[in-house]
Amino acid sequence: MRVFSGIQPSGDLHIGNYLGAVKQWVNAQSSDALYCVVDLHALTLQIDPATLRTQTDDLVAMLIAAGLDPATCTLFVQSHVPYHAQLSWLLECVATYGELTRMTQFKEKAERQDGYRVGLLTYPVLMAADILLYQTEQVPVGDDQRQHLELARDVAERFNNRYGAVFTVPVGVQPPAAARVMDLQEPTRKMSKSVASPLGTIYVLDSADDIARKIKKAVTDTDGEVRFDWEHKPGLANLLELYSGFSGESPSAIAARYHRYGDLKGDLVDLVVTELTPIAERYRELRSDDVALRQLANEGSEKAEAVARQTYRRAAEAMGLQ
Ligand code: AMP
Ligand code: TRP
Questions:
Q1: Is the N end or the C end of the chain the one with fewer CB atoms within 10 Å?
Q2: Is the pLDDT score of 194 beyond 80?
Q3: CA of residue 320 to ligand 1 center, whole Å
Q4: What rounded mean pLDDT belongs to the chain?
């Protein structure tokens, strides 16, 4: 089963990224899985060049620390493989302006700034190119990427109908729990790298004390009953989803075992700290050797490029390029 997914080096990894995406990637890793640090995507918003370079290394180290084994799967950096940008251009000539302006994430991000970049609009086409270059069957992502994935499918189908069967049409896969982790202080808004919410976001590299403080202060409600109910008790439902993401039990089964919010929060702190502490330790080790880390990423890029080249050539030829 060919698996592909990507993540932006646009800020520190939080437990939404970890549970919604990275943990699934680790579970799905095989010699047929490719995971990509999408640095080209990070250029769609303002980012300092030195920061981008550092955060790309940080994220490669973090993904390995979280359990991706570069000897098993292919872990690489998007801009190292030129075919992503090249296929993206071909697909921009297949996707329509209407499709792109309808994307919710584009509308939200464009609203927040004047003079947004064209890349913010064409972002999902580059994402489609990422996926389609590798004849991907499954794309493990969080819930917020559903619409982008639909676009990748539509573009693949349209291309195949117009120019011949070149691309596999991918499907998105979401984790059973924690596909959309919400901010701990504002449980109606998703936990996000780009919105600063110091108490509402738990980072994978947070200390045990910070994790405990954030979970203890997480917003719940005043009725006091432990029940899994997103509509009426979003703060508690979010904590139960998190618990489920870390323990594997279903949120309702967890709710049935607790009578007090404080007990639930205390056990959740232990679960999170137990899983994240060794990741942070491995991360610090890996990050102390830049040369070895870059070497691993370069090896991944070579493996990825060999696959991408074949698909790109077939697509270019099908469209009439010489
Ligand atoms: P990004 O940080 O936008 O590059 O996202 C990387 C991956 O994390 C994608 O698969 C997202 O769907 C996933 N993700 C981001 N935020 C959340 C969240 N709050 N809950 C669950 N998954 C998320
Ligand atoms: N757009 C995705 C996000 O922000 C990141 C991404 C880029 C991606 N290319 C991808 C995810 C390809 C899955 C497959 O989360």
A1: C
A2: no
A3: 37
A4: 96
Give the total number of structural domains in the chain: 2
Are 66 and 23 in contact by the 8 Å Cβ rule? The answer is: yes
Residue 196 has a pLDDT of 80
Q: Rounded distance, CA 181 to CA 163, Å? A: 40
pTM of the predicted model over 0.85: yes
CA distances (Å), origin 310, targets 80, 151, 158, 204, 205? 16, 23, 20, 37, 39
Catalytic residue flag (residue 193): yes
Q: Is residue 185 part of a domain?
A: no
Q: Please check whether residues 57 and 122 belong to one and the same domain.
A: yes
| Cα three-residue angle 298-75-100, rounded to 5 degrees | 110
Residues within 6 Å of ligand 1 by CB: 7-8, 16-17, 20-21, 141-142, 144-145, 179-181, 190-191, 193
| pLDDT for residue 113 is more than 90 | no
- Give the pLDDT band of residue 151 (cuts 50, 70, 90): very high
Please give the number of the atom of ligand 2 that sits closest to the Cα of 4.
Answer: 14
Ligand nearest to the CA of 4: 2
pLDDT at 263 over 90: yes
190 is catalytic: yes
